[in-house]
Amino acid sequence: MSAHDGGAGFRVAPRPVAIRVSEAGGALRFDYARLSKSAPNEYKLVLERPNTPAEPGELTLTDKGNILHCESDANVPGRGRSRIVQVFSRQAAEP
């Protein structure tokens, strides 16, 4: 990623963006998350999609980078606003 002029005469690095494209009912759906590093192993994120409120969250890497802990506030169909917690673990390869 390259830096750009933030409008104030100084260069600012762009924030990372992750984009997911999926299909729902024959139409394409685009979701994206904006990430910003808040500490050495922590990231703040904002999940966004058209016509819905933004969904803030946090990502934390633990155990020497082998575990990713994700928490976010999401609009769950039929339940409304909910706190979502996900934990991902890297598995060692079998010999």
Could you write a compact summary of the structure shown?
With 95 residues, the protein is an all-beta fold.
Question: Would you kindly provide a written description of the structure presented here, covering whatever features stand out?
Answer:
With 95 residues, the protein is mostly beta strands. 0% of the residues lie in helices and 63% in strands. It has strands at 4-5, 11-12, 17-24, 27-39, 42-48, 55-62, 67-76, 80-89. The strands form two sheets. It has a six-stranded antiparallel beta sheet, with no helix packed on it. A hairpin with a 3-residue loop joins strand 7 (67-76) and strand 8 (80-89). The termini are far apart.
Class computed from helices, strands and strand pairing: mainly beta
Stretches where pLDDT is under 50 for at least 5 consecutive residues are: 1-5
Helix content: under 10%
Tally of contiguous helical segments: 0
DSSP E strands, number: 8
* Distance linking N and C termini: 37 Å
Strand fraction equals: over 45%
* Adjacency order of strands in the biggest sheet: 3-4-5-6-7-8
Mean pLDDT: 78
Basic shape? globular
Oligomer state equals: single chain
Biggest β-sheet, characterized? 6 strands, antiparallel
